[in-house]
Amino acid sequence: MSLAEQLRSFLTELLTPLINNADLVTLLVTIAMIFIWVILAFIVIRIVRLILFNTKSFEKKMGKSESKEKQTVRRLINNIIQFFFYFWIAIMILNELGLDLVPLLAGAGVLAFAIGFGAQELIKDLIAGMFLILEKTFKIGDYVEIGSQSGTIVDVGLRRVKIQNWKGEVITINNGDIRTIKNMSLNPSFAVVEFRADYDLNLKELESTDFKNFLAKFKERNSDVLEMPEKVLLIDLYDGLKFTINIKTKTRKHVAIEREFRKQLVTYFQNKKIDIYVPVVIAEENKEA
After folding, report:
1. Phi and psi, residue 188, nearest 5°
2. Which of 1, 45, 121, 123 has the fewest CB atoms within 10 Å, counting from its CB?
3. Which CATH fold would you assign to the domain 3-118?
């Protein structure tokens, strides 16, 4: 005998000496059992929410901000537990009312199959979203490239991911459509500055103490610079001497550093009276015969 049957038998034995009408006893036992199932559902859901969200309250008291990914995972677990438990409670209540559940569940199975067949994309998005969140592929604020779209992650959901590009446009991508992700916010970035000079440039100028001091001062003035190169690299001899300087920066700070370093480099060369070579293309006009 199951626990529910034992409880029903206990209530029947308790009410029978008090009430002579058997039908009324059965009705009261049914109402009492339904009430018990509802109370049980309320208690279990409250316990689940307490377990899931107690950590969130503790982190908030400790001054720690919770990430969007943690919030999504908490809601996901809470919703899954609530769905299955409410479904089970509903079956128990219907059983108390004397409804035959076998045909109902068989029909629900056919309906679920039809709905599932038509909602394959939705299911694919949800499963992909769960793995994206659990595997911590990226987080809010990361700069990523997904397919042909690139931008900053502004929202991570179970169905969709939203990124904002440099134009301010928010692009929504279904999780099931994501195949390749390039996350550019995990490691430091590199600012790459290239320039050309005439062939008669004395290469020792770029190895001099003044130039090394210039690189050191640039790092001191820019807190986003993590590491300056020890020397400038000569990478090409065609159409003048082509040099490159690679500067290690904080994540996603390389663009601003590139712009600032170019400006400072031009000023340094002007003070040293060193010409930076700029190729000039002369187009000849076609003359009619």
Report:
1. -60, 155
2. 1
3. Helix Hairpins (1.10.287)
Q: Which pTM does this prediction carry?
A: 0.54
- Look at residues 49, 53, 34 and name the one whose alpha carbon lies nearest to residue 94: 34
Annotated domain spans of the chain: 3-118, 137-183, 189-272
Q: Which tokens sit at 206?
A: 């770029």
- In Å, how far are 88, 213, 219, 265, 276 from 216, measured between CA atoms? 69, 5, 5, 13, 21
Catalogue the long-range contacts made by 51-57 (C-beta closer than 8 Å, 24 or more residues apart).
Answer: 52/77, 52/78, 53/78
Instruction: Give me 122's structure tokens.
Output: 């939705």
pLDDT digits (tens, 9 = 90+) for 42-90: 888 788 777 766 655 545 544 455 555 566 666 667 777 777 777 777 8
CB contact at 8 A, 75 and 67: no
Check: CB of residue 76 under 8 Å from CB of residue 58.
no
Fold topology of 137-183: SH3 type barrels. (2.30.30)
pLDDT for 152-202, tens place per residue?
Answer: 988 887 788 899 998 899 999 998 888 889 888 888 999 999 988 888 888
Using DSSP bridges, classify how beta strands 143-146 and 181-183 pair: parallel, antiparallel or unpaired. Answer: antiparallel
End-to-end, the C-alpha distance of the chain in Å comes to 110
